[in-house]
Amino acid sequence: MPDCALFLLPHPVSQSPAAMKKLFYLILANFLAFTSFPVFAGTASSAKPATEAKVGGTEHLNALISRIEEIRQMDFSSLDDGQRADLRQELQSIHKAVKAEKAAGAQVVSGGVYISFGALIIIILLLILIL
Q1: In 3D, which of 74, 65, 69 has the Cα closest to residue 97?
Q2: Residue 4 belongs to some domain of the structure
Q3: What is the pTM of this model?
Q4: Residue 40 placed within a domain
Q5: What's the pLDDT at 89?
Q6: What does the DSSP assignment read for 62-131?
Q7: What is the extent of the structural domain holding 70?
Q8: Which carries the bigger pLDDT value, residue 27 or residue 53?
Q9: Which of 64, 89, 107, 110 has the highest Cβ tally under 10 A?
Q10: Nearest to 87 by CA among 65, 72, 104
Q11: Distance, CA of 21 to CA of 23 (rounded, Å)
Q12: 77-112: pLDDT as tens digits
């Protein structure tokens, strides 16, 4: 008789459906218990400067937004073409700066759950069996 653990189990055909279900859940629990997924965590030192930069960034962001409002309230009929072009370029640069600051201030969730191909197949098979 071989020393392999699979040969120690009785033949599956002779088992009742309840025993097979119990065996299936036991194997599934063992598989899930010994499967690992990578998890990403930030360092404690990187969190503190981000909040300080965020506080300083909101003041600058508010200044940029107030400048946009000033430009929008201006009377463009009294300006010549060169001044209008300068204001248009200034608005475009301010819009780009605002977008860049909002993107830098937004919390980006990266990573996620990585599932191996084998685990994906087992999950699909489980869903098929359960449903």
Answers
A1: 65
A2: no
A3: 0.38
A4: no
A5: 93
A6: HHHHHHHHHHHTS-GGGS-HHHHHHHHHHHHHHHHHHHHHHHHHSPP--------HHHHHHHHHHHHHH-
A7: 48-104
A8: 27
A9: 64
A10: 72
A11: 5
A12: 888 999 999 999 999 998 888 888 777 765 555 566
Q: Does 3 have pLDDT greater than 80?
A: no
Can you read off the two tokens belonging to residue 39? 């998890």
pLDDT value of position 50? 46
Q: Which residue has tokens 């299936």?
A: 24
Residue 55 lies in a domain: yes
Instruction: State the total domains in the chain.
Output: 1
Q: Which amino acid is at 125?
A: L
- Look at residue 57 and tell me if it is in a domain: yes
Closest CA to 57 of 91, 106, 18, 120: 106
